[in-house]
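ESCALATION

Customer reports they have been waiting on this structure for their group meeting. Please prioritize. Original submission:
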Amino acid sequence: RASDLALDFQARGIQVIIGGFHVSGVLKQFPEDDSTMSLRAHRELGLERLMDLGVTLFAGEAEGRMLKLLQDFQQGRLERVYNYLADKPNLVQEPAPEPIWSLRHHFAFPQSSTIDACRGCPYNCDFCTIRNVQGPKIRARGVQVFCDMIRRNWKRGINAYFFTSDN
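Update from on-call: job pushed to the front of the queue and completed.
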């Protein structure tokens, strides 16, 4: 569905950047190496079509990369692919993603929030996108990041959390 929306926006003249686990997983499993398998995967899994129609792909994690991406966008010089799969960010000082607070009334539990605690997984499951995309080493956010977030959220009336962790 994301590809459909991306192509609809692109057809209307709106530049689109698409990423996430599908894009990252396909590029990790089938790197752009001109092999028959990679070319077929990019075609059958939709990435070739997106790029042919001008959609920019973003693979990997966004921490520390958004400024360059936004500057390239603003200057009209987006690259075809931004591939950061081999360069995992250090999450210790990175703030955890936060929901859009004006939409929390749509949440199942409006007085709660999630915290993205860490990424990566040490287990050797070949099929798993976590290990393939985020790597075999667990990278965690620092304790101060959690303390700061909980203090900010307490002021917003948030008193419950769902911690997400890949391991």
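Sent to customer with the following note: The chain has a mean pLDDT of 88.
Escalation resolved.
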